[in-house]
């Protein structure tokens, strides 16, 4: 966490300093700062399950993971909302750089001063007290687990599809006449719905431990609403339904995120959570690129009769933002999404190894406690039986 805070803080400082340099140096220096700050991104994505497993009891791990992983999309949402309001001219960029540097510097100082240890003195659970595998043995254990490999592909595909839709949303909507402001609204609704869904799923699995059921239902509904959204983008005048499906897709799509990361830790225990979840996130980033490339590969020139509705180009001379017909791309995307859900529902049968280890430990402790109580039980001496006196003796 200290490394994450410092790389983000130093990157923000370099990005801020670029605003005061001559114009020819601003862009390369600013990009350098952005690249240094981006080094913190893997730590943000990989650490939540590790922190949750090390610092929180089993009844709070899901919501702890949710809070950690949802900080990233929440930050993206705030940046997308605030940046256009703050930067209305090139000279206003410095205000945005100041605005982003202040919280980065505060987090850097807080991590340096407040973070004193990686784990608590007293582990909150039995699993947190157990030694974990080193990276290479843990990596081998992950790759040898059939259930983890299914999760690696399906969960990574879910992350990739979510990122893909978020990335190319403008290219999907502008050929049908939906403005950039509406695109921004859809993206914001998707993130807001996702935060609500992830919080709900985290609380639910903490109380019920129904990881598998929650994952399958959420993933299935996310694909349904995601495909409805993509089909609606091919038609005009469906703005209210598009907004609604964005909310629902966000709710169920991001609901799978913390649950899937917790499942990866359950399937591979005692592999370190940083290893198992890190591979899932890596799979998601790689598949994000693949799905974006697939969508662009199957996009076709827009039909002449639809050109009257498109709002992609700035003017008739704009050759950079040519509208595309995404019908074939949507069909291919839909097929891949449906295939992922079928693999998850039919083949994914996880074993909760971490939960089972904790149950066995609790059962062992209960038996030892019962045995000690039996050993310490005091057996009272038998009372002397007195015989009643005869009437004759009483006289």
From TrEMBL:
Start-end of Basic and acidic residues biased regions: 366-375
Membrane disposition: Multi-pass membrane protein
Region (Disordered) location: 366-395
One Pfam family per UniProt: MFS_1
Entry's transmembrane regions: 27-49, 61-82, 94-115, 148-169, 181-205, 217-234, 240-259, 271-294, 329-352
Gene3D superfamilies (UniProt xref): MFS general substrate transporter like domains
Origin superkingdom: Eukaryota
Record PANTHER family: MAJOR FACILITATOR SUPERFAMILY PROTEIN-RELATED, SOLUTE CARRIER FAMILY 49 MEMBER A3
InterPro entries reported for this sequence: FLVCR1-2_SLC49-like, MFS, MFS_trans_sf
SUPFAM superfamilies from the UniProt entry: MFS general substrate transporter (SSF103473)
Keyword Transmembrane helix recorded: yes
Originating species: Haemonchus contortus
Keywords associated with the record: Membrane, Transmembrane, Transmembrane helix
Protein name: MFS domain-containing protein
Example GO molecular function: transmembrane transporter activity
């Amino acid at each position: 966490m200290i490394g994450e805070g410092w790389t983000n803080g130093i990157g923000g400082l370099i990005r801020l300093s670029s605003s005061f340099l001559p114009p020819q140096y601003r862009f390369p220096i600013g990009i350098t700062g952005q690249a240094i700050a981006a080094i913190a991104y893997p730590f943000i994505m990989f650490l939540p399950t590790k922190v949750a497993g090390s610092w929180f009891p089993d009844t709070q791990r899901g919501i702890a993971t949710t809070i950690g992983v949802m900080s990233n999309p929440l930050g993206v949402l705030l940046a997308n909302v605030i940046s256009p309001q703050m930067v209305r001219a090139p000279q206003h960029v410095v205000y945005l750089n100041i605005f982003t540097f202040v919280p980065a510097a505060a987090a850097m100082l807080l991590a340096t001063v407040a973070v004193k240890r990686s784990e608590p003195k007293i582990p909150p659970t039995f699993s947190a007290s157990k030694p974990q595998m080193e990276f290479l043995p843990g990596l081998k254990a992950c790759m040898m687990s059939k259930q983890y490999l299914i999760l690696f592909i399906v969960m990574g595909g879910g992350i990739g599809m979510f990122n893909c839709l978020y990335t190319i949303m403008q290219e999907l909507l502008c050929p049908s006449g939906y403005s950039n402001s509406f695109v921004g609204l859809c993206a914001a609704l998707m993130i807001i719905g996702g935060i609500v869904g992830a919080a709900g799923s985290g609380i639910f699995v903490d109380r019920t431990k129904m990881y598998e059921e929650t994952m399958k239902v959420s993933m299935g509904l996310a694909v349904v609403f995601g495909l409805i959204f993509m089909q609606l983008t091919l038609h005009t005048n469906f703005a209210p339904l598009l907004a609604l499906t964005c909310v629902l897709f966000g709710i169920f799509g991001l609901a799978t995120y913390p649950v899937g990361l917790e499942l990866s830790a359950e399937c591979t225990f005692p592999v370190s959570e940083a290893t198992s979840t890190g591979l899932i996130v890596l799979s998601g980033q790689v598949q994000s690129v693949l799905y974006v490339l697939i969508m662009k590969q199957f996009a076709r020139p827009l039909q002449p009769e639809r050109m009257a509705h498109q709002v992609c180009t700035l003017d008739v001379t704009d050759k950079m933002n040519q509208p595309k017909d995404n019908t074939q791309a949507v069909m291919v995307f839909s097929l891949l999404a449906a295939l992922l859900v079928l693999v998850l529902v039919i083949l994914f049968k996880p074993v909760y190894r971490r939960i089972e280890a904790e149950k066995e430990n609790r059962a062992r402790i209960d038996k030892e406690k019962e045995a000690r109580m039996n050993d310490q039980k005091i057996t009272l001496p038998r009372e002397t039986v007195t015989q009643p006196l005869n009437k004759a003796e009483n006289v």
